[in-house]
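Suppose you are handed a protein chain with no further information: no name, no annotation, nothing but its sequence. What can you learn? This example shows the usual starting point.
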Amino acid sequence: MRIKQSIVIPAFNEARRLGTTLDTVMDYARKGSKNAWVSEVIVVCDGCSDATERVARGYTDRMPLRVVSYADNRGKGHAVRQGIAASKGDVVAFMDADGATPVSELGRLSDPIIHGQADIVIGSRRVKDARVKVDQPVVRQLLGRAFALHAQVVLGLNIQDTQCGFKVFKGPLARALFKDMQCDGFAFDLEILAFARERHLRVLERGVEWNERSGSTVHPLRDGVRMLRAAWKIRSRLHAQRHSAAAESQTAPLLSPEPLYSVSST
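A reasonable first move is to predict its three-dimensional structure. Written in structure tokens, the prediction is:
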């Protein structure tokens, strides 16, 4: 059976919040078209020490849900990478386990990909059509904006909100793109967007509904500093790849270049 869309949910000790999010995903699919369940949900348990895996597996007989689980906590980037590698959908999305951006936004963000207008659509809390119902604390807002500005300067990303946890991709492209990624932590969004820009992919930023949720594992200062450092590492890696590609182009025989990846239209 062809899978139209995959939803990846990375989770680290989310036993308290995951069930509510999975309930909304299940309701969303049931209220959709008669073929809504030609889809899959993949929950990635990122070294959880609580009942997250048990909660997720409790839904496997109620909807097409698979659980990917491993013992060590590797970070959100690693979890998303594992989930996307396991996905089979023509369209692949990832969303946060806390449901800060509801799954009901999936249709709006998928439409530009389905109609061939974009390769990647990212949810945003900072563009005009965003609907932020419960905002972040002021300190988090200021740090987030400062981080976005830093990413624009260091990586040339013309994006207002790189870190919103709801992004949608062409499926084959996502599986190829994430395969080459190295960031295991929260900076993985930056890496994906920087490499998408490098490959001239069409990235659309679209406003989404967003609600602040308590219980976040992100530490604004500690993880913020890590992401700032990661941005410079990503920049260095891009420069190294450009230099390597330039050197290879000078010595390579005149053959038709192989594509970076193969993308089927949806």
